[in-house]
Amino acid sequence: MSSSIPQRPFPWHVDAWLKTIGQFKSGQMPHAYLLSAEADTGKRHYATTLAHFLLCHAPGADSACGSCQMCLLNKAGSNPDLLIVEPEDGSKVIKVEQIRDLKKFLETSSHSFGRRIIILDSAENLGVSSANALLKGLEEPPEDVMFILLTDRPKAVLATITSRCQVISLPRPDRSQSLIWLQQTIPDTVTDTDLDLLLDFAQGRPLAAKAMHDAGTLEQHREIGDALLQLLENRVSPCTLASRHAKTQAGEILRLLLYWLSILCKHQMTGDASYLKSDSLRRAAAALLKPASDGIVPTRALFSLYNETVVAQTQLGSTSNPNAQLMLEDLLLQLSRLARVKSSMLA
Ligand SMILES: [Zn+2]
After folding, report:
1. 297 or 292: whose pLDDT is higher?
2. How many angstroms is it from 58 CA to the middle of ligand 1?
């Protein structure tokens, strides 16, 4: 029989994990958990790790064996005693048909004469009829079934569902835990500085940072950063830049611009140079903020542009189909004016 290393919880979830395993060992597990945690910090991983442990035929002290038939089925993603229900096909809502499948699962018996587990991701996205159908299962679950519900927004989960579950609030990792995990997960060719930047872009959420790395975000941001620097250094016009990037990269330009403006504001208010983590940021700061004190762009102008960029980003993500090129032109024109104000004041 082949074997593999069993899945383990992320380091920042170990304390919660040991408590959950303690409940299992003392026979005090509820029939339904609601795992609550910020998005992209690993709650889905926690849920599948728990499911694998509970389904394993020969578990160790605090992890699945990795080798039994159930572990191999789990690894292959084909265990008939584990049902994962999640929004499908880009939809945000769990559909009633999916809950019907869940009910069918509840009506059948275990394939391995053991426990069965339902993971439902994300509980806040249940429509009213789906929630009602789920409630019946939660109220009178078959004895061998355990529910593990997940949510990013516990307050948005119907109280009738929450009240039937034991809630576990999983912590988010601190920055050093996230960085260590990224160092271990992403190839050595990526520098610690770039990992730090990725974590900034991902607002401190390590799984989002990993997804950004896999999607080539660093390379994309380098390219866009170079383009923005050309604008700040008066080597390209706002119109040219906007027309070059509006169709495919408008969202990324806005995202990077927001990041730059937030960092420049923090740097300007605190004087702390450690905020300027990349060469691009240092050059942007040189173009906008330094060196003469009377040439500094007022912080309020940076804030104002930041706020306008937030509005543009919201419009771009809406269904109103805004003109991305015009929006970009306007923001880039304002950015280039800020750089020119400083140049003229220095002159
Ligand atoms: Zn096993």
Report:
1. 297
2. 5
One-letter amino acid at 246 equals A
- Residue 45 alpha carbon to ligand 1 centre in Å: 17
Opening angle at CA 40, ends 38 and 41, nearest 5: 65
Distance 63 CA to ligand 1 centre (A): 9
280, 225 contact by CB (below 8 A): yes
Does 220 lie in the same domain as 166? no
Q: Which of 276, 259, 278 is nearest to 267 (CA)?
A: 276
Domain identity same for 71 and 139: yes
What residue numbers bound the domain in which 39 lies?
A: 11-172
Q: What is the CATH number of the domain that holds 292?
A: 1.20.272.10
Residue 53 CA, ligand 1 centroid: distance in Å: 7
pLDDT (average), residues 218-236: 91
Residue 271 has pLDDT above 90, yes or no: no
Q: Where do we find the tokens 């980003």? A: 313
**Nearest one of 3, 6, 10 to 185, comparing CA atoms:** 10
Domains identified in the chain, total number: 2
Same-domain check for residues 233 and 319:
yes
Find tokens 């587990």 and name the residue.
117
CA of 62 to the centre of ligand 1 (A): 12
